[in-house]
Amino acid sequence: MGTFKKSVIIFIAEGAYAGKSPVAPGTAGTVVGILLYLLMKNLSPSVYLSLCFLISLIGTWAAGHAEIILGQKDASPIVIDEIAGYLVAMFLVPTGWIFILAGFFVFRLFDIIKPWPLMQVQDLHGGPGIMLDDIGAGIYTNVVLQAAVLVGDRFLSH
User: Fold this and answer.
1) Which helix (H) or strand (E) holds 15?
2) Is the backbone of residue 153 left (phi > 0), alpha (psi -120 to 50) or beta?
3) DSSP state of 20
4) Cα separation of 116 and 153, whole Å?
5) Can you tell me the distance from the alpha carbon of 67 to that of 120, in angstroms, rounded to the nearest whole number?
6) pLDDT digits over 40-77, tens only?
7) Count: domains in the chain
8) Tens digits of residue pLDDT in 96-120
9) Among 73, 58, 82, which residue's Cα sits nearest to residue 8?
10) What is the distance between the alpha carbons of residues 65 and 69, in angstroms, rounded to a whole number?
11) What whole-number distance in Å separates Cα of residue 77 and Cα of residue 93?
């Protein structure tokens, strides 16, 4: 594999080098996810979801190759999974800062504790094993945020 291709893979997998953060690279990757979300939040749901799917596909490819390049299974500098997971977490969630921050904290919690079956999904080989547990954490986060919106609307309407 050529040097340029390796550089592109690492750039993608490390979330524009956020994964090189000496402290909490996964959190730094999620911050990149927030920045990307801010650029995407006003897109139509179909375009937003299409971009999530594309980022997840490219991320799976890059993460699998980066794991080989870095010589470590799910190496901590690989944060494209946090980026994709956060974007999934925010799908069709209101765009206010309270939701952006709640999404950040709830997503990081699910990403760290990995509730069932996310821990088992992480055992998959290569890129899918790196990406799918975070996408699952994003889905769990989305469900929590959507429930919070419903409960909040119920309380506010009475």
Assistant:
1) none
2) alpha
3) G
4) 29
5) 18
6) 999 999 999 999 999 999 999 999 999 999 999 889 99
7) 1
8) 999 999 999 999 999 999 999 988 8
9) 58
10) 6
11) 28
Using a cut of 0.85, tell me whether the model's pTM lies above it.
yes
Rounded Cα gap, residues 13 and 134, in angstroms? 14
Q: Which two tokens stand for residue 41?
A: 């939040």
Tokens of 26: 């996964």
Tokens 């699910």 -> residue: 110
Q: What residue has token string 């920045």?
A: 35
Residue whose tokens read 């904290």: 105
Range of the domain at 44: 3-156
Tokens matching residue 45 = 């749901």
User: What residue type is assigned to position 77 of the chain?
Assistant: P
Q: Which helix (H) or strand (E) holds 134?
A: helix 126-156
